[in-house]
Design a protein that fits this description.
Layout lengths: L18 H4 L4 E5 H18 L4 E7 L8 H7 L1 H6 L2 E3 L5 H11 L12 E9 H6 L1 H10 L7 E7 L13 H6 L4 E2 L4 H18 L3 E6 H4 L2 E5 L28 H22 L4 E4 L6 E6 H13 L4 H7 L1 E6 L1 E3 L3 H8 L4 E5 L6 H10 L8 E3 L23 H12 L6 H18 L17 H4 L8 E3 L14 E4 L21 E6 H18 L3 E7 L17 H11 L4 E5 L17 E3 L3 H8 L5 E7 L3 H9 L10 E2 L10 H6 L5 E2 L7 H4 L8 E2 L1 E2 L3
Parallel strand pairs: 2-3, 2-4, 4-5, 5-7, 6-7, 10-11, 10-13, 13-14, 15-16, 15-17, 17-18, 18-21, 19-20, 19-21
Antiparallel strand pairs: 1-8, 6-12, 9-11, 22-25, 23-24
The structure holds thiamine diphosphate.
The site of thiamine diphosphate has 24 residues, from helix 6 and helix 19.
Amino acid sequence: MSNLAQPPLPTDLSASIDDKYTRHSGRVFLTGTQALIRLPMLQRERDLAAGLNTAGFISGYRGSPLGNLDLGLWKAKEHLAEHHITFQPGLNEDMAATAVWGSQQVNLFPGALYDGVFGLWYGKGPGVDRCGDVFRHANAAGSSKFGGVLVIAGDDHAAKSSTLPHQTEHFFKAVMMPVLYPANVQEYLDFGLHGWAMSRYSGCWVAFKALADTVETSASVSIDIATVNPIFPPNFKLPPDGLNIRWPDPPLVQEARLLNHKLYAALAYCRANGLNKLIIDSPAPRLGILTAGKSYLDVRQALDELGIDDALAGEIGIRLFKVGMVWPLEPEGVRHFAEGLEEILVVEEKRQLLEYQLKEELYNWKDDVRPRVIGKFDEIGEWSEGGWLLPATGELPVATIARVIAERIGRFFTSPTIAARLALIESKQKAALTPIVLAERKPHFCSGCPHNSSTRVPEGSRAVAGIGCHYMVTWMDRSTSTFTHMGGEGVPWVGQAPFTSEKHIFANLGDGTYFHSGILAIRQSIAAKVPITYKILYNDAVAMTGGQPVDGILSVARITRQLEAEGVGKMVIVTNDPAKYAEITDLAPNVPIRHRDELDTVQRELREEPGVTVLIYDQVCATEARRRRKRGKMPAIAQRVVINEAVCEGCGDCSVQSNCLSIVPVETASPSKAANSKKDRIPRSTGKIGQF
Ligand SMILES: Cc1ncc(C[n+]2csc(CCOP(=O)(O)OP(=O)(O)O)c2C)c(N)n1
C-alpha cells in the first residue's frame, strides 16, 4: 500500500506467542500497543550492542487508546526485567511524568548503576493536558546523554472513547517538545528508536502521537535492531557543554538552550535521518500533497480509490511528501518539495499544524517560489461556517480527501476514470451517511454493575457526574447532569453554591479517580465549606479502562481515615455485603455501615447535614467480580433471583428497579400489564438477576 520500507520475509517459520518479545531478528506480529512494549527492549538491545549499559523506566496513566498498555506491560514483566526495564505506573499522569523526569537525573549524582536510563511516558490526551507544568519544566531541563525520553500521547480525534475529541500536537508545540507521528506499527518501532536517539542528541523530550487508528492495529513488522541506524548530524555544531540535563541550570539559560540549540538539533536530526520524505515525485510537478501519520494513509487510500497509482500520479504532476516529525517542521525538506509546484494541498487531521508551518517556511523564502498553499481552507480562505475545504472537526473522511484531490487536479488533468471513481466514492459516502439501521446502541452499565444502584438520587435532589463508567448515568433518567474532567468532581459547585437557592448536591466520584486526583476535589469542597455529598463509588477497580487496580494501596477503611483527617463531616458506608465489615476494624470512628437497600434513606439523611459529607458505596465491579470468580479469587454467587415466565405479569418493574440489560422481555400467550399500561414499558420480562 505504501512506499514505506517493507521488512524482509522470514526464513524461519516456527512461531510462538512470546516471539513478539523474544525474537531478535526477522518479523513478528504485533499490535501497536505490543510494539510500545517491545520498543524499550529493543532500545536496551541496541545500547548493549553499542557498548552501553542502559536501563529503561516506564511510567504513565491509562486511558484509551492506551487503555491496555499497562495490562500488557504487567504481562510482559519478566521480559522487561530481563532488559533492565522498570515499569512503575503513576498515580496520575503528572506524577508519572515527574518520575520520568527523575530517570533523566540519575547520572547527575554519584551511585548511578547505569550509563543512562531511557524514559517512556504514556497517557491519553486529557492526561497530556494535565501535564503542562511538568512537561514544560522537564523538557527545558532536558534528557540525559544516554537516556532520552519518549512521550507517548494517545489521541482520540472522534471522541469515540473520550468526553471531548483531542489532538495533542498543539499542546506539545506550546511546551516546545518535538512531535513524531508514526503512520503504522512498523513506524512505532522505527520512530520510537529514532525518538530516543533524537532525545539524547538534542536534549529535548520527544513526543510521539499514538492514534487509536494506528495503536489498535496489528501488523507483521521487522524487529531487526539494525534496520534503524540513527545518524548524528555531522555538520551541526553543538555547544561545548552539550545539550543534556545538568545541575545547576538557571531558567533563562535553559530557555536559551532550548530555543537556540535544542530545537535546531532536533531539526538537524530529522533532516539527517530522513524522517520526512518524498514518497512520490513527478517529472513535471504541479500539485504537491503534504501529509503525515494517519492522514498519509488516508491520502494513499484516496489516490487508490481514484485509480491513481504512483506512476499515474507522477504523470499527472503529483508530488507526495510524508512528514514524520510534525513539529517543528524541518524547512529544507519541505522547501525542496515545494520547488517547482503550483500548489500544495496540506492534508492533516483536526486543527492545522503543518499548514501554518509550511506557509511560514515558504513566505519569505524566494520571491519566485511561492506555491499556493491550501488545506483547511482553499485559496479564497472563506472563514465562514461551512467554508472548510478539509474540515477540522470530527474525523476527516477519505471520501472528502479524494474529492478535494480530484477537484484540485481537475484544473489541469481530467480523466473519465477519475470522474467515474469519484462519483462512486461520493455515492458510497452518501450511502454511509444514511444508516440502514436507525436504532442507536448507547453504552449502558454492565449487568450486575454496582452503578446501576449506586447512582440513584433521592427525589428532590440532583447529582453531578465525573469520569469513569458511572459517567453513563448522565444518559439515564436519574437527575444527574454535567460532569468535570478527571479529578474535578463536584468542584463546579464551589462556583455555584454562593449564587443559587439550591441547598445541596450529590457528586459521584469513582475510586480510581479518587486515587488519581479526586481527593483534592474533596479537599477543595471542604475548604470552600459547600454543602455537598460525595458518593465515592468504590468498585475496587479502575473499571472503564479495563479493570486495573488503583496504583497503590486503597481500601474503604483507608478512605474513611484519609477523609476524616481532611475534615469531612458525616460519613456512611453503604454496601451490598455489610457482613464483611465484621472483620474490618480499622475504619475511622463513627462511620456506620448500612445495607444498600437503605441507600435512599441514607442519602436523604446526608443531604440535611451541613458541609461536606461522604457516602462510600462499596460493591465490586461486576466485570471484575466475574474475572475474580473465574480465577477462583471470589466465591461463586450463592443466591440468584429467577423470574418465572408462568407467573410474571410483565409489569416491567424488575427492569426499572435493576436497571439491568440482561432482563429480556419475552412474549407469551397471556397479556402483559406493561403492554396495557399507559407507559407502555416492557411487554414481558424474564431473566436471571445476578448481583445487581
Ligand atoms: C486525565 C485522564 N486520565 C485518564 C482518563 C481515562 N479514564 C477514563 S475513565 C477512567 C477510569 C476511572 O475509574 P474510576 O474512577 O474507578 O471509575 P469507574 O470506571 O470504575 O466507574 C480513566 C482512567 C481520563 N478520562 N482522563
